[in-house]
Amino acid sequence: MALLKPDLLFSITRRSIGSSQVLGAYWNKDWKPGPYPRTEEERVAAAKKYGLMKEEYIPIPDDGDGAGDYPQFKPYSVQGRDPHYPWDFPEYRRNFNETMHENFNMYTEEKWNVEMKPRWPMRYMLAAFLTVMGGTYYLATIGKYSAFLPVMPKHLPAPGVTHYKYQQNQN
Amino acid sequence: MGNIQAGIDYKMHPDVVPKPDHKSNWDPNYGFSSKREEKVMIATEEELHSAKISLQDRDYCAHKLLDYRKCYRENFPWIMNCGHEKHTYLNCEYDDSTNSEFICLIQLCLSS
């Protein structure tokens, strides 16, 4: 029980859980953002609530599509973050108590990478695509009747169509 | 089975070698001394529709297919009893396919 020294326990709880906003929320309604901050005091309180500095806190614009006092920042993708850093949540590459983007579920590892840098420029890739597909189409077109089974289509009865056997009438 | 030869023939002489997926432009009685025998469709549209025969099977052997399906249904699970019907149907299909044009040019040459 040497590990469970009171000061160690205290420092763990104090640093990781005890000082976080997580303990202040119990039910899903408690995770809802507050109303849009109008005054300077409200802005400071909201910034403190989300663990941001006063200068970097910009709420999502209240244009009818906003999210109360939730902070707005440039989206980042999970794919774009350092995979070797010891994240608290390696599957989301996210640290405990880190403020998440409003649409975080759009930017997880298997979804959209907003910071993706294509290996080649877009018009180069388009030109390669069109070359390959057009070349294949051209080859298929010029080779269409280069080899085929020498059989005419099957005779299916249809109104107004007469099919013949290869026997002649005896009369 | 002559696929490449047919392709070469078509590329060399596109005016006489027919395309495989097109209708022949020749007169059906061209080269025959008398008129050719016409194929007769025996099964009616209502029969085929009520028996749920699929569209690609509604050919000139469909009445034999109807017989085979009927026998199959009556004898199930002793479907060995329908061997005769099945044989008749498949033979009819074979004859029908060799009666489709072009392959039978060989037969024509042999018979003349």
Provide a descriptive summary of the structure in words:
- The complex is a heterodimer of chains A (171) and B (112).
- Chain A is an all-alpha fold and 171 residues long.
- Chain A contains 3 helices and 1 strand; from the N terminus they run αααβ.
- Chain A has a domain at 32-73.
- Chain A is elongated and about 110 Å long.
- The termini of chain A are far apart.
- Chain B is an all-alpha fold and 112 residues long.
- Chain B has a domain at 42-112.
- The two termini of chain B are 24 Å apart.
- At the A-B interface, β1 of A face α1, β1 and α4 of B.
- β1 of chain A pairs antiparallel with β1 of chain B, so a sheet runs across the interface.
Number of helices of chain B: 5
Tally of strands of chain A: 1
What is the count of DSSP helices of chain A, taking H or I runs of 4+ residues? 3
Chain oligomer state: heterodimer
Number of strands of chain B: 1
Report the order of strands and helices of chain A.
HHHE
Structural class of chain A: mainly alpha
Could you write a compact summary of the structure shown?
Chain A has 171 residues and is mainly alpha-helical.
